[in-house]
## 1
Amino acid sequence: MSKKEIRIGLVGYGFMGRTHTNAYKRVGDFFPELKFIPKLQAVCARNEERVKAFADQWGYASVETDWRKLVERDDIDAIDICTPNNMHAEIAIAAAQAGKMVLCEKPLARSVAEAQPMVDAIEKAGVPNTVYFNYRRIPAVTLAKQLIDSNKLGKIFHFRSNFLQDWTISPELPQGGEGLWRLDNDAAGSGVTGDLLAHCIDTAMWLNGGIKDVSAMTETFIKERVHTATGEKQQVGIDDACLFHCHFENGSLGLFESTRYARGHKALFTFEINGEHASIKWNLHDLSRLAYFDHRDASIERGWRSIHVTDGDQPYMDKWWVPGLSIGYEHSFVHQVADFFKNLEEGKPCSPTFKEAHQTQKVCEAVLESAKSKSWKNTHVEW
């Protein structure tokens, strides 16, 4: 089968730049049936010496130090945005207007208002697009979706999820700059709500449908931190921790928690769903297993079972190893790239699109508004 190259222009060479690039490099090896394959055409970042080193290490054909020049290039088909959140909108809008496909790291933007012109530009240009809410594509999470859609759980009553970390507890940690921009509200737009809960919210709505309204509280435990740009102490504008509960459109109740102040947890993302017939739960630290309880089992053998998601008839696993051998975090990005190219071949949108990610943004913003006003807030999600 003849292949068509999609020439990638990557903006940003940090953690996400590496994960996306790894996905581009591996997708053709494990998804050989794809008609479209990526070509690492150019990578862009402001530091010329470091971006050249990244290009040499990962195999990009060229470099740019101005993303505008990257967007203008005729030899670039798709722009992949791996920058801090405050740069997403400008790059995505320019890329769409230039007729480029656009792939963007989450969250879509810093606010609903900032995200709306991105959605408008994408839809006006009619360009293929997707947002990297990658946890959807961990096989055990995709299997959870299949179980729910097949009505194995019956009517859903509860959805609870958390995302716990512990890396910002020290008051000596500065805010802003490379590596710590997530602590700077101007760059990030929010703290754990946009960075961590956005994953929980996207996964929850994908599995369980739209969120109707929320009641939340947030806390910033360390009120001032030195800013790397000024060397002076400044007020911290992000949320260090957030709790909220909600109503889903299907009548179920949701309970969510995220914090960067949970000692002993580096990246604990979990969810549990309780239905009339069965329950499921999943844990990122044991990402290849999905726990399942079915009340319809005979009472003498009824109990939680652990489904090891490694068999070839389970989501994505026919592309990898033999049954019993697990895959990891990085493979979720390979799956997203594979799905993007497969949908491109079939002329279909690759979920989550910018429009869908905008719905997650609406929930995040409602959460922050609820915490500020100490009242219930409608999300205005269109589901």
## 2
Amino acid sequence: MTPEIFALCVFAALLELDTTYAFQLTFSRGIIAAPLMALITGDVMAGIQVGVFTELLFADVNPLGGILPPSAVVCSAVSLAMHAMGIELCFAFFFGVVGAILFSLAEKLVRKNRFKWLIFWEQKIIKKPSAVNRAVLLALGTSFLMNFILIFVFAWVCGQFMLWLLPFIPAKAYLACRFAYLIVPWIGLATLVPAFRLKAR
């Protein structure tokens, strides 16, 4: 792992907090997050491409209420980290999508098991109201650390796997993957058309 990829994972973990835990300034949207992360790796065009593709793919799902959509930040971070390792975007992006889905599943498990921890801090805050700042900082710090570990480990494992696998991929499989990557935005647009049609009626 290069320092740039490490910094990208740190930045991605911070941006992921913007989804629900803090800030909520929409920096966690794929169209914004990916180009920002690409400034770290130095390939801004790849960041814009990944950002647009991610935004179109996940545009119809928003983190409202109990809905936890696939993370656009994780998708962008894994894709760009693997691309920085020398893996083409047509392969890296699909690992990014899988990482985004797995991350949302892990987040659901964490939220279910956080209940006892919240009760503990609620009792402490009732006894000592000034403990609320410490509880909030600890919650944000824990979430940031979990985000970083998941993004870093997934990107590194998938990157190493693909670097090993690349010499064995036949030309036809490479072309098929590249074609599948190029139709991603059209899939995203196809999901948005019904939504616009319903709003127009």
## 3
Amino acid sequence: MTPTKVHQLGIIALIVFTVAAPWVLPLFVDSFWVDIYSEMLIWSLLAASVNLLFGYVGLLSFGQALFFGMGMYGVAIGIAKMGLGFWPAFGFGTFLATAMAAVAGVFAVRLTWHYFAIITVVFSLIFYFTALSWKPLTGGDDGLPFSMPPIFTFGEDVKLSLTNTTIQYYFIALTVGLCYTLLAIVLRSPLGRAFRTVKENDMRASLIGLNVYLVRLTAFICAGFIAGVAGSLFAFFGRYASASYMFYHVSGEAVVWAIIGGVGTLLGPVVGTSLLIILREELSHVWEHYLLLVGSIVIIVVIFAPRGLGGLWHGLVNRLASRNDGTLDSSEETKL
């Protein structure tokens, strides 16, 4: 079996598990794990936005929480303050995050290395403190709760709403799946190849005719869009928006999730996010200082699997294939 088929089987298994999770998980664990798995999927999108910039363009951002928070506040303000319905509020939250990414990106992508990381933190802090102080609009420290509007209404009696936990789960899973599908299409397109070319050597990329600034800006806006969708979903999931989710430590967690899962791999963020959230939930019941254990596990993974768990998986599959075939398929460098 070729590495490509193994990876495809892995993706199929993940899809099947995600579809069956509301029925499978309660058979083995408490039913609240269905909600936790929904949360994992949402947070994996935030990690995917980090992965897009760091893993494919070479820009390490600690400001993705800004766009996550913009998505949250766009939904909450749209419903609670503007009286928008479900889909207009969802669109407003995503648009607000994407527009903020476009504005911030104009300035941020002129820089690289630690300068880029610093300016993304600065942008995040500016709007974090703005959200805290603008209490009439954002709710300040208390956050901004809202009532869930229906997704669809059929007549006067039939309404589909995320207040139904099953509908909520599948809406989140479908939206996250569509985002990853869109991301996969982009990464396999000429634009995705331009991302990787700029990451490998931006000077050579400019010499062959690529506009490095525009490529980085496009990636930054795409990452902001993904983080905005994640923030919008999380607002619907929690029925509120809070400035605390715009703080840079949220971006730091997303960076860790992406690195542990494997930057430069499509589904690495899902793996890293799921692993660390599961560890957090399980170890928190065992020891009050559970973060020490989580941190130790992260350090061990980074030392012994510097390419992350996704990179470890790809390496293992390719080695097994090379033993069976006697050759290593170089095309597997395009990771799933």
